Amino acid sequence: MTSSTTKKSIRPQAFTLIELLIVISIIAILASLAFPAVNGAMDTAKKAQAKNAAVQIASAVVAYETEYGRLPGNGTTTVNSSLMNILTAADIANNPRAIVFLEAQAWKKGKGGTNSAGYCDPWNAAVPYSISLDADYNNKVDVSANGTASGSYVIMKKVGVWNVSTNSKYRVNSWD
Predict the structure, then answer these.
(1) Is the pTM of this model over 0.90?
(2) How many structural domains is the chain composed of?
(3) 129 is a domain residue
(4) Backbone angles phi, psi at 18, to 5 degrees
(5) Percentage of the chain surpassing pLDDT 90?
(6) Do the beta carbons of residue 139 and residue 123 sit within 8 Å?
(7) Per the domain annotation, does 53 fall within a domain?
(8) 3-class secondary structure for the chain?
(9) Domain hosting residue 83, numbered range
């Protein structure tokens, strides 16, 4: 007695072109929804980094004053690059103990840092932070409220640091 058993070949079924296109379009839709959120998070991170840099510059100026008993430079709104040289101990004439009050990296897009203009924010390498010092030691400095280089109101601090930006979304300072 012979028995003939038929074997059915079992093979996996492939995805159809329609199914693949649907999956790809779902992935594309999800990616397009995530992009603005990621971009917003990156902008928030840059703004926090710029704010941190402004606060570090102000803290370095206060530390310099504590060490030497006077403000660095000529005590007015200063040229950023000359002040950075003093605070980073590159200018020994104005920082004779060669104390590094501020460690700054070279400017990189999206990171900020120093270049020939001075200490610049993450968005613009051409415009350094504005720095205003309390020249008459009355604990008042003129600072900008609208992101311009010149002061427009007074704060009760020894130093004010802010970035110059026409876009209010990117404005940061050391006193808020």
Answers:
(1) no
(2) 1
(3) yes
(4) -65, -45
(5) 23
(6) no
(7) yes
(8) CCCCCCCCCCCCCCCCHHHHHHHHHHHHHHHHHHHHHHHHHHHHHHHHHHHHHHHHHHHHHHHHHHHHCCCCCCCCCCCHHHHHHHHCCCCCCCCCCCCCCCCCCECECCCEEEECCEEECCCCCCCECEEEECCCCCCCEEECCCCCCCCCEEECCCEEEECCCCCHHHCCECCC
(9) 20-170
What does the pLDDT look like over 62-100, one tens digit per residue?
A: 999 999 999 887 655 556 778 888 999 988 888 999 999
> What is the identity of the amino acid at 176?
D
Rounded distance, CA 174 to CA 176, Å?
6
AA letter at 116:
S
pLDDT score of 65: 93
Distance CA 88, CA 83 (A): 9
Identify which of 64, 82, 146, 165 has the alpha carbon closest to the alpha carbon of residue 119: 82
